[in-house]
Amino acid sequence: MPDDDLPRSPRALFARGSWAETSRISAILRKETVGGALLLLATVVALVWANSPWSASYTALGDLRVGTDALGLHLDLSLRTWAADGLLAIFFFIVGLELKREFVAGDLRDPARAALPIAAAVGGMIVPAAIFVALTAHVGDGAVRGWAIPTATDIAFAVAVLAVISTHLPSALRTFLLTLAVVDDLLAITVIAVFYTDHIDVVALAAAVVPLSLFALCVQRRIRSWWLLLPLAFLAWVAVHQSGIHATVAGVLLGFTVPVLRSAAAGGPDAGPGLAEHFEHRTRPLSAGVAVPVFAFFAAGVSVGGFAGLTTALGDPIALGIVCALVVGKPVGVFATTRLLAAATRASLDAALRWIDVFGIALLAGIGFTVSLLIGDLAYGMDSGRDDHVKIGVLTGSVAAAVLASVVLSLRNRHYRAVCAEESQDDDHDGIPDVYESHRD
């Protein structure tokens, strides 16, 4: 019988990827777990300090101005602004690297595999945004301007939750969570550039092209000299900052310029790790260990005012909209989009998984923090009357999503622990679990 006449099995969603990609994802998640712990520590310290008798000193530290206005560069910024505009550019540089690598050299270079996390990320943006708008439209006075606050997933916190519950989730789900978060971040930075830019200085934006182009030329020629690349990156950041577009966009643009080179083992032309992988290896510890925790320290400090103050804050439509969008909208958007995609493409869930696993990951996607707080600042202003309510909404919604996800995924943990014990066998001692060799064959 000709091959074309053979019955085709339906495509499986969340099918097991390659061992190389699984190993890479596992290494990234281990690093993000440490970053998540530091992020949690910074948040707790900020909350305790902001609600202590010394809260004024916390506010004064965040308002401390550092820098210069020489040459009209407007770089006399507060420490809070440096953290949000400067340090987060490092975080978004990692986002740019990771996104490009996923779709150029990762398992998700296959359009069929890439469609799922992209569609889920879009659904996970539309539904929470709609819920937020529905709950705040009657408020007026620009309340709906914060519609994008609950649309991004904080991968560091999400992975920290996975580490705490010691889940043995299949690697395909972990890859899905990581890629979903990366695409979320890309969508978020696009939203920031398009919807939260009040004015654009065309001259400054054009000037940014020069250092960006020089940076791209250097990395394309495999130049790794930090003494050359860092000044070019800083000049690109300054120009984007001057243009009126949020400066973190520069980080993503710089990440996109770095070439992704396959290793010789993967069939590529160059031996050793690619340049994107090299930069990611060098920069991720700085992002996860310094940039994001410092931003969280300055952004998360909010005076709750006890139980009464918390109740009052959560009664505000903006805070309530954020909580509902994170806890309900984000999981519904991710899960429903996945089910609709499965129905539309007649794809079936991988035999090793259950839909409750996907729902647990969708709940985990409701943990929004870093980008949510950033968008909250952009939507209403750092010192606006709504700033504290945004922070309380983000923190409450993220904690609630984390608790619900922990309950669901913990119920599945025992089953997958037994499965992982079987699949981790390496009878031929070649460093690759036998299940991946069978899958490859």
From TrEMBL:
- Is Transferase one of the keywords? no
Source organism per entry reads: Mycolicibacterium madagascariense
Quote the cellular component terms of the Gene Ontology held in the record: plasma membrane
Q: Which PANTHER family match?
A: NA(+)_H(+) ANTIPORTER NHAA, SODIUM ION/PROTON ANTIPORTER NHAA-RELATED
Q: Which NCBIfam families has this protein been placed in?
A: NhaA (TIGR00773)
Q: Which reaction does it catalyse?
A: Na(+)(in) + 2 H(+)(out) = Na(+)(out) + 2 H(+)(in)
For this protein's source organism, the top of the classification is: Bacteria, Bacillati, Actinomycetota, Actinomycetes, Mycobacteriales
Give the record's membrane topology.
Multi-pass membrane protein
Gene Ontology MF annotations:
sodium:proton antiporter activity
UniProt protein name: Na(+)/H(+) antiporter NhaA
Q: Name one Pfam family in it.
A: Na_H_antiport_1
Q: Which UniProt keywords apply?
A: Antiport, Cell membrane, Ion transport, Membrane, Sodium, Sodium transport, Transmembrane, Transmembrane helix, Transport
One biological process term in Gene Ontology: regulation of pH
- Asked if the Swiss-Prot or TrEMBL record annotates the protein with the keyword DNA damage, the reply is no
Identify the InterPro entries for this entry.
Na/H_antiporter_dom_sf (IPR023171), NhaA (IPR004670)
Role according to the record: Na(+)/H(+) antiporter that extrudes sodium in exchange for external protons.
Q: What is the protein's major site of localization?
A: membrane
Q: Which residues cross the membrane?
A: 33-50, 81-99, 111-135, 147-165, 177-196, 202-219, 226-242, 248-265, 286-312, 318-337, 358-380, 392-411
Annotated family = Belongs to the NhaA Na(+)/H(+) (TC 2.A.33) antiporter family.
Q: Which HAMAP family match?
A: NhaA
Q: Which gene specifies this protein's sequence?
A: nhaA
- List localization entries: Cell inner membrane; Cell membrane
